[in-house]
Amino acid sequence: MIDEAIDLQPLSSEVVVKTPSCEACPGRAVTDRTRIDALQELFKILHVAFTERCDRALDANGMLIRIWPMLTYGVLPPRFRPWVDIERQAHTLRGWDPLLVPGLLQTPDYARTILEAYPGVTDERVQELLTARLERQKILARDTPPPLWTVLDEGVLHRGVGGPDIMRDQLAALLTASEHRNISIQVVPKAPT
């Protein structure tokens, strides 16, 4: 079904969008459940840049970009979805993270390393979850982002997630994030021995 909806040429070439059974005028709502399901499956595996190109190619006036967060939301574990809703509506975000860097501050490689550690996870599922996690981070880039105050256990900074290169980049990203007015990162030092 996805093959019927879109044909991907190599990324350096033009993207060819085929819609042989969809002759709807631009701007008309797609109501066919099968097509909507196919689009959801397709968008789960594609990144937002491709979605932007499709939006332009289909002359969708930003509709595909506007629904992108809803599509990534569906890949999240059901138990986590209420938290994402809270994040989106929050005026202030506060957290205590004793084990890992919080998801809103994770680099893609750090997040990928954590997601790959889930038992039995497939590469496709890792990519879905990573895309959703990076989408969540956009709340910190809003015109008026919510303040984020997070307290980390010092062990988070020493825990070798993914190896030295990934940790170096993650620590650099934390330093950069801490320079933003709306982000406060505090570290609880390890007790002296």
Can you put this structure into words, describing what you see?
Strand 1 (6-7) and strand 2 form a beta hairpin. The chain has helices at 2-5, 33-45, 48-57, 63-73, 81-89, 108-116, 123-136, 154-158, 164-178, and strands at 6-7, 16-17, 93-97, 148-153, 183-188. It is built from nine helices and five strands. The N and C termini lie far apart (61 Å). The strands form two sheets. Strands 3-4-5 form a three-stranded parallel beta sheet. Strands 1-2 form a two-stranded antiparallel ribbon. Helix 3 (48-57) runs antiparallel to helix 4 (63-73). With 193 residues, it is mainly α.
Largest sheet: 3 strands, parallel
Proportion of residues in β-strands:
5-15%
Supply the number of helical segments. 9
Question: Approximately how much helix is present in the residues?
Answer: 40-55%
* Average pLDDT level: 77
Shape: globular
Order of helices and strands: HEEHHHHEHHEHHE
Summarize, please.
By secondary structure, the protein is mainly α.
Quickly list its features.
mainly alpha, three-stranded parallel β-sheet
Which helices and strands occur, and which strands form pairs?
Blueprint: H1 2-5, E1 6-7, E2 16-17, H2 33-45, H3 48-57, H4 63-73, H5 81-89, E3 93-97, H6 108-116, H7 123-136, E4 148-153, H8 154-158, H9 164-178, E5 183-188
Parallel strand pairs: 3-4, 4-5
Antiparallel strand pairs: 1-2
